[in-house]
Specification:
The chain is of the alpha+beta class. Helix content is 26%, strand content 29%. The protein contains 4 helices and 9 strands. A 5-stranded mixed beta sheet has the order 1-2-3-6-4. The chain has a 4-stranded mixed beta sheet with strand order 5-7-8-9. The two termini are 20 Å apart.
Length: 193
């Protein structure tokens, strides 16, 4: 899905969302994975109100898209460059629609940092990514499935001479998916970007 609303330079990027249904050995149902890239704020070259308008419309469309492709009996992973940042209006709108929308999602990296069993590697780069609040890894588990963050790392952060491959810290989150309906089968481990 391409977002029909954009602002400034971001209109040149044709941003949108993409969904894939992925069958995982040992799991009764496929996992739906949605990746997205949303309108930025200051880099757009337009006023903040105009950028915020486009951002809110994209969040609305993404929320509807998630609701349309999500199956109540299957897991869903939603990840990407959400360009939330430190802007309070963006943060509150994002949280309301993603964590409280039609498919209430759980913040995977947030959940990992609150769970002792979840190992956090490269904590300095993870902290940078968390403060920037641009890239998000979220999920929702149906009743018959348990999703547990297992490890959070930043394989593409600051390396060597403090150089980075991108303006984003590449964050990776490993999950354990335990299909309650198929206890005799081994658990699956899934990694999201």
């Amino acid at each position: 899905m391409s977002y029909p609303v954009c602002a400034g330079y971001d209109c040149l990027a044709n941003k949108g969302a993409m969904a894939a249904s992925i069958a995982i050995p040992g799991m009764a149902r496929p996992v739906t994975v949605i990746d997205t890239h949303l309108n930025s704020n200051g880099a757009t070259g337009v006023s903040e109100p105009r950028a915020l308008y486009a951002y809110k419309r994209q969040i609305d469309l993404l929320s509807s898209f998630i609701g349309a492709v999500a199956r109540p009996d299957a897991a869903i992973m939603v990840l990407g460059d959400f360009n939330v940042g430190r802007d309070i209006a963006r943060r509150s709108y994002f949280a309301r629609r993603m964590f409280g929308g039609p498919v209430a999602l759980t913040g995977g990296s947030l959940q990992c940092r609150m769970t002792r069993a979840c190992v956090v590697s490269e904590p300095a780069d993870i902290a940078i990514s968390t403060v920037r609040a641009k890239d998000w890894l979220m999920y929702r588990a149906p009743n018959a499935l348990s999703i547990r963050p297992l490890g959070l790392s930043a394989p593409f952060g600051h390396h060597g001479a403090n150089a980075m491959l991108s303006d984003h810290v590449g964050v990776m989150l490993s999950y354990v998916l335990d299909d309650v309906g198929m206890r005799s089968r081994p658990r699956a481990i899934l990694v999201s970007r």
